[in-house]
Amino acid sequence: MLELKIQNLSKTYENGVEALKNIDLTISTGMFGLLGPNGAGKSTLMRTIATLQAPDQGSIMMGDLNVLEQKQEVRKILGYLPQEFGLYPSITAEDMLNHFAILKGIGDQQERREMVAYLLHQTDLYDHRQKKLKGYSGGMKQRLGIAQALLGNPKLIIVDEPTAGLDLEGRSRFLNLLGEIGESVIVILSTHMVEDVKELCGQMAIIASGEVLLNGEPAKAIDALKGKIWEKTINKEDFKDYKGKYKVISTAFVAGKPVLHVFCDTQPDDGFKPIEPDLKDVYFSHINNGRTVI
Ligand code: ADP
Ligand code: MG
Q1: How far is the CA of 39 from the centre of ligand 1 (A)?
Q2: Is any atom of ligand 1 closer than 6 Å to the C-beta of 186?
Q3: What are phi and psi for residue 81, nearest 5 degrees?
Q4: Which ligand is closest in space to the CA of residue 34?
Q5: What is the CA angle 25-29-30, rounded to 5?
Q6: Residue-wise pLDDT tens digits, 137-152
Q7: pLDDT digits over 166-215, tens only?
Q8: Is the CB of 20 under 6 A from ligand 1?
């Protein structure tokens, strides 16, 4: 099976920000969710894998391919959707995809036409193919972005926060589309939304402040928290007390009252009831490490 092996990868920007600190990750075929808050280093890591940016140290291998050295070879098998991408407003989706297909080296016109038509169908944009991109909604642009990334049957697909800015329906359409990509391809999806990972990814990593906090299978990470997550609805006035006393991993408000999730090996007190942990608990127990953010 094809594997992407990232070892000891570090990057410090000129302003002194350590965006990546000795990152070690092994990513197999299938969907890999890279989950982390803003500023975690997700985009830096993805640009580095996509050969657009050099790290200060470390190595990235994809099978026998040395990603940091053999950039041209990597680009031939790469599909990349950056977090922010510009579109020429006055060209059509069909023309844009055709143009990118040429850049990807698909020289045969017939082959190119078929591939563009296929991807327009796949992304539900076929009926809009002659429309200028300035008339496209956010969801349509995002789907066009993924169509562009899928040109030329890439073996390595990197999509950077593709669901940010989409509404619920747009998001689910987009995720379904990614879910249809073959199992023999490596797909790395970054997101700050736990739901994206939960629905799609067989493997995941949580990163924050340039460090890998967890790497593994979502289901196993959830299992590891069994019996350790407790819930209690409290009064607002008592919030500070609880935060001081317990490892509060998250707080939600229900009908104006704080509902705490607490990490503890044993039942904290009578008022706490055990709950089945989910991926959100995994995420917040790693990210907040006792702090409360929601
Ligand atoms: P994420 O994608 O998880 O939000 P980024 O990789 O964009 O994280 O950023 C990681 C850190 O590096 C942040 O603190 C960000 O401000 C900083 N950073 C990103 N790009 C640059 C850059 N070109 N120059 C300086 N700092 C940067
Ligand atoms: Mg980013």
Answers
A1: 6
A2: no
A3: -115, 105
A4: 1
A5: 105
A6: 988 998 999 999 999 9
A7: 888 888 888 888 888 878 899 999 999 998 998 889 999 999 999 999 99
A8: no
CA of 159 to the centre of ligand 2 (A): 10
User: By CB neighbour count within 10 A (0-12 exposed, 13-18 middle, 19+ buried), where does 253 fall?
Assistant: exposed
Q: What is the 3-state secondary structure (H, E, C) of the chain?
A: CCEEEEEEEEEECCCCCEEEEEEEEEEECEEEEEECCCCCCHHHHHHHHCCCCCCCEEEEEECCEECCCCHHHHHHHEEEECCCCCCCCCCEHHHHHHHHHHHCCCCCHHHHHHHHHHHHHHCCCHHHCCCEHHHCCHHHHHHHHHHHHHCCCCCEEEEECCCCCCCHHHHHHHHHHHHCCCCCCEEEEEECCHHHHHHHCCEEEEEECCEEEEEECHHHHHHCCCCCEEEEECCHHHHHHHHHHCEEEEEEEECCEEEEEEECCCCCCCCCEECCCCHHHHHHHHHCCCCCCC
Residue 12 in tokens:
């410090």
